[in-house]
Hints:
Strand content: 35-45%
Strand order of the largest sheet: 1-2-10-7-12-5
Order of helices and strands: EEEEHEEEEEEEEEH
Largest sheet: 6 strands, antiparallel
CATH class: Mainly Beta
Amino acid sequence: MQIESTKIKGLLIFTPRVFTDNRGYFMETYNRLAWEEFINVDFVQDNESQSAKNVIRGLHFQKPPHAQDKLVRVVHGSVLDIAVDLRHKSPTYGEYVSVLLSAENKKQLFIPKGFAHGFVSLADQTILSYKCSNFYHPESDATILWNDKDLNINWNVTEPIISEKDAQGIEFGTFKSPF
């Protein structure tokens, strides 16, 4: 397994070892013993979404005490995955990292508590799967506006498909971080 740091402390990119032969491939997508040196998280819920090309989902997070660490990967297709630092005492508060995750590159992004998460699907029928360290709690669910002018995220899409919920996210300038 290869581990890469990003420009924001805590965000890590994991690339698993992939064993291929004439039958296909095998890889471990998560192994607590192998990963606990880098992330010591008790994942309790797995989620999966399927998206058409140009769908943007996010920027989502759960407020404390129901905040979630996430381990994100793509099973089919590809996404530009975005994580925004919401930790108000962090030197990178309000900055974001974007990572190309695809079925081909098999990279995974670890997003700790204190980040908003979103992605844009770059292919039809993209399937994104992620582990969470806390159960979904509807009353703790929150969304930062995906196209917030202060964040200035380059989604690399000209005609995004957005849900009503995501279109009504909180503007970052009025956001009061609970982290």
